[in-house]
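Re: adenosine-5'-triphosphate structure - here you go.
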Amino acid sequence: MSVLLVEDDPSIAMVITAALEDEGFAVTHCETLAQRDAYLREREFSALVTDVMLPDGDGIESLAAVRRDQPDLPVVILSAQNTLDTAVRASDTGAFEYFPKPFDIDELVRTVRQAVGTRGMEMASSDDEQLGDGMPLVGRSQAMQAVFRMISRVLRNDLTVLILGESGTGKELVAEAIHELGNRRTGPFIAVNTAAIPGELIESELFGHEKGAFTGAVARHTGKFEQAAGGTLFLDEIGDMPMQAQTRLLRALQSGTIRRVGGREEVRLDVRIIAATNKDLKPQIAAGLFREDLFYRLNVVPIRMPPLRERPEDIETLARHFLNLAAGEGLPRRTLANDAADLLSRQVWPGNVRELRNFVYRLALLARDNQIDAATVTDMIEAEPGDGDLHSDQAADLDSAVRHWLDTSMPPPGTIHAEAVAALERPLFAAVLRQTGGNQLRAANLLGINRNTLRKRLSDLDIDPDGFSARN
Ligand SMILES: Nc1ncnc2c1ncn2[C@@H]1O[C@H](COP(=O)(O)OP(=O)(O)OP(=O)(O)O)[C@@H](O)[C@H]1O
Ligand SMILES: [Mg+2]
């Protein structure tokens, strides 16, 4: 079994070669597309493992020709360009698997083994059209890579997708991206907030009604399902949908048809369903608030949006992205100094990306200089009502904050206490350290805990006390 490895970084190439050779593969290594093509002409390989950015071109773009000549050759793509765009382009080539760098070498070896085993069975490439840059979803963390990979897997089919995650994590944006990049992009994208429609209107909203179906139905009305025909129906806040509406929705999904209120005709559904919620549906089901059968209908492909605190490394990228967007919308064009980016990355963002976005827009609007530095960020944080961390409406007091947190966060069973303590400690320690200018001894005294305990917790929580020193 022979693998052709195209990788211009010698150290990565060495690691991969060694790991594959350990598994009994014969590895041929080259560094350019020209060498790749020469090898492919001259020899048979069982798999191709390729980097994307190569000295003489783009490893994905040039794959179309390779796949035309050797449609059965499994291809595994490695990339340091961890964007949604790369994930999508990789999956559009019909590549067996896409690995954002840094990747787990064992997983790579496993995938190559699998790829060789299922040779010829992989999905055919659907279309080679180019998807431009300017992808709406930003993030380079491993957690977001997993999201991008899931998205790329649902673009060429109509599977129902359930997007889960805290408020402000980008659920709606993901739904839009799936629509925009997917097979149904030429059709409409219709979003319905299922929690906002009064119970008695929901049926008519979703399914439509005939003229005269009820008092006030003066004309025929087309429901959201029909409006979305040929496109995507986005059912938002599904966890808050009234029970009766859940039953109707389930029936529609099961039968694949709907009937307008007061109508006879069965209308065939032609929509892709994407649902989203910030509620944890398992306890809702246990409490009898959400139909379990509907959950299984919707939960065909779950996509979990990671909260920002699980990917602080994305904060800087997001902040710069939002400064660009703000400039595009007519706000002053600002740049972000590195110390400001660091400070933003250390903040807690209970409202996730939405809160960060709003904060960055305020910075763009109100900063005095074109370059935003840490002092400007600090000023803005201090100007916020409730001093930054616990300032959402729901968090007005700790009691309701905890209940809100339980409702919206989804710590895995068995970790709730630890997660809750961490969620409380993070803003608490940040506030006290800010007060003491990063002095841990004084912070420990104020808190009334042992200095070593504080130090241990700060390191557990990945909080850098130096970030709160007076200069920052
Ligand atoms: N990864 C991302 N890259 C760029 N912008 C993002 C990203 N995630 C979220 N946003 C932006 O953050 C804001 C909130 O996102 P969105 O409305 O999709 O959140 P949501 O999960 O639907 O929240 P809610 O549960 O409160 O409805 C939007 O302005 C969105 O464009
Ligand atoms: Mg939303």
